[in-house]
Amino acid sequence: MKNPVGPVLRMGDEVELIIAAIEDDNPGTDIEVIDRGAYVRVQGEGEITVTQPTLRRYLGADYEIRSFGGIMSAFSGRAITTSDAITWQSVARHKTGEHQAEEEAGEEVAGKPQASDKAVTT
Q1: Closest to 7 (Cα-Cα) out of 70, 94, 92, 96
Q2: Exposed/middle/buried for residue 67 (C-beta within 10 Å: 0-12, 13-18, 19+)
Q3: What CATH number is given for 4-104 in this structure?
Q4: pLDDT of residue 1
Q5: Within 13 Å of residue 2, how many CA atoms lie on the same side as its CB?
Q6: Residue 12 has what DSSP assignment?
Q7: Which stretches in the chain have pLDDT values below 70?
Q8: Domains of the chain by residue range
Q9: What residues contact residue 39 under an 8 Å CB cut-off, 6+ apart?
Protein backbone atom coordinates (compact mmCIF):
# COMPACT_ATOMS: atom_id res chain seq x y z
CA MET A 1 0.00 0.00 0.00
CA LYS A 2 1.27 3.42 -0.93
CA ASN A 3 -0.85 5.47 1.52
CA PRO A 4 -2.06 3.12 4.28
CA VAL A 5 -4.43 4.64 6.84
CA GLY A 6 -6.44 3.25 9.72
CA PRO A 7 -6.51 2.43 13.42
CA VAL A 8 -4.18 0.38 15.61
CA LEU A 9 -6.40 -1.51 18.04
CA ARG A 10 -5.60 -3.13 21.37
CA MET A 11 -6.29 -6.85 21.19
CA GLY A 12 -9.57 -7.75 22.87
CA ASP A 13 -12.90 -9.51 22.51
CA GLU A 14 -14.34 -6.84 20.18
CA VAL A 15 -11.47 -6.62 17.66
CA GLU A 16 -12.78 -9.18 15.15
CA LEU A 17 -16.22 -7.53 15.20
CA ILE A 18 -14.72 -4.08 14.69
CA ILE A 19 -12.67 -5.36 11.74
CA ALA A 20 -15.86 -6.79 10.22
CA ALA A 21 -17.61 -3.43 10.70
CA ILE A 22 -14.74 -1.57 9.01
CA GLU A 23 -14.85 -4.01 6.09
CA ASP A 24 -18.64 -3.50 5.77
CA ASP A 25 -18.28 0.29 5.79
CA ASN A 26 -15.63 0.19 3.05
CA PRO A 27 -16.92 -2.05 0.26
CA GLY A 28 -14.49 -2.39 -2.62
CA THR A 29 -11.56 -1.34 -0.43
CA ASP A 30 -8.84 -3.84 0.34
CA ILE A 31 -8.63 -3.86 4.16
CA GLU A 32 -5.37 -5.26 5.48
CA VAL A 33 -5.15 -6.63 9.03
CA ILE A 34 -1.71 -6.97 10.58
CA ASP A 35 -1.57 -8.87 13.87
CA ARG A 36 1.15 -7.57 16.19
CA GLY A 37 0.27 -9.75 19.17
CA ALA A 38 -1.12 -7.27 21.68
CA TYR A 39 -2.19 -4.93 18.86
CA VAL A 40 -3.85 -5.20 15.47
CA ARG A 41 -3.24 -2.69 12.69
CA VAL A 42 -6.25 -2.27 10.38
CA GLN A 43 -5.51 -0.32 7.24
CA GLY A 44 -6.78 0.58 3.82
CA GLU A 45 -5.44 2.63 0.94
CA GLY A 46 -5.98 6.40 1.14
CA GLU A 47 -9.18 6.55 3.20
CA ILE A 48 -11.34 4.27 5.32
CA THR A 49 -14.35 4.92 7.54
CA VAL A 50 -16.22 3.18 10.33
CA THR A 51 -19.70 4.31 11.33
CA GLN A 52 -21.65 4.02 14.56
CA PRO A 53 -24.63 2.26 12.90
CA THR A 54 -22.36 -0.47 11.54
CA LEU A 55 -20.54 -0.84 14.85
CA ARG A 56 -23.94 -1.16 16.56
CA ARG A 57 -24.92 -3.98 14.21
CA TYR A 58 -21.87 -5.92 15.37
CA LEU A 59 -21.45 -4.78 18.98
CA GLY A 60 -24.96 -4.01 20.16
CA ALA A 61 -27.53 -1.23 19.89
CA ASP A 62 -26.05 0.76 22.77
CA TYR A 63 -22.49 0.99 21.34
CA GLU A 64 -21.27 4.59 21.11
CA ILE A 65 -18.63 5.67 18.59
CA ARG A 66 -16.79 7.51 21.38
CA SER A 67 -16.11 4.08 22.95
CA PHE A 68 -13.94 3.29 19.95
CA GLY A 69 -11.21 5.55 21.33
CA GLY A 70 -10.84 3.23 24.32
CA ILE A 71 -9.41 0.41 22.20
CA MET A 72 -7.62 2.51 19.57
CA SER A 73 -4.05 2.97 20.75
CA ALA A 74 -2.85 4.80 17.63
CA PHE A 75 -3.70 5.38 13.99
CA SER A 76 -2.06 6.25 10.71
CA GLY A 77 -3.27 9.12 8.57
CA ARG A 78 -5.48 11.98 9.61
CA ALA A 79 -8.47 11.06 11.80
CA ILE A 80 -11.68 12.95 11.11
CA THR A 81 -14.37 12.33 13.72
CA THR A 82 -18.05 13.16 13.74
CA SER A 83 -20.79 12.18 16.16
CA ASP A 84 -21.42 8.94 14.25
CA ALA A 85 -18.27 8.11 12.24
CA ILE A 86 -14.48 8.09 12.18
CA THR A 87 -12.63 8.49 8.89
CA TRP A 88 -8.92 7.97 8.51
CA GLN A 89 -7.54 9.79 5.50
CA SER A 90 -4.06 9.99 4.04
CA VAL A 91 -2.34 13.29 4.65
CA ALA A 92 -1.62 13.56 0.91
CA ARG A 93 -5.32 13.09 0.06
CA HIS A 94 -6.33 15.62 2.71
CA LYS A 95 -3.88 18.22 1.38
CA THR A 96 -5.13 17.66 -2.18
CA GLY A 97 -8.69 18.21 -0.94
CA GLU A 98 -7.68 21.45 0.80
CA HIS A 99 -5.93 22.65 -2.36
CA GLN A 100 -9.04 21.97 -4.47
CA ALA A 101 -11.31 23.69 -1.93
CA GLU A 102 -9.09 26.78 -1.92
CA GLU A 103 -9.10 26.92 -5.72
CA GLU A 104 -12.89 26.55 -5.82
CA ALA A 105 -13.21 29.37 -3.30
CA GLY A 106 -11.00 31.56 -5.51
CA GLU A 107 -8.22 31.82 -2.96
CA GLU A 108 -4.61 32.14 -4.01
CA VAL A 109 -2.86 28.78 -3.76
CA ALA A 110 0.89 28.65 -3.21
CA GLY A 111 1.42 32.07 -4.78
CA LYS A 112 -0.34 31.18 -8.03
CA PRO A 113 -2.63 33.84 -9.44
CA GLN A 114 -6.22 32.73 -9.93
CA ALA A 115 -8.38 33.22 -13.00
CA SER A 116 -10.05 36.19 -11.29
CA ASP A 117 -6.70 38.03 -11.08
CA LYS A 118 -6.33 40.53 -13.91
CA ALA A 119 -3.08 41.68 -15.41
CA VAL A 120 -2.73 45.44 -15.59
CA THR A 121 -0.71 46.88 -18.45
CA THR A 122 0.21 50.51 -19.04
Answers
A1: 70
A2: middle
A3: 3.90.56.10
A4: 80
A5: 3
A6: S
A7: 93-122
A8: 4-104
A9: 8, 9, 10, 11, 73
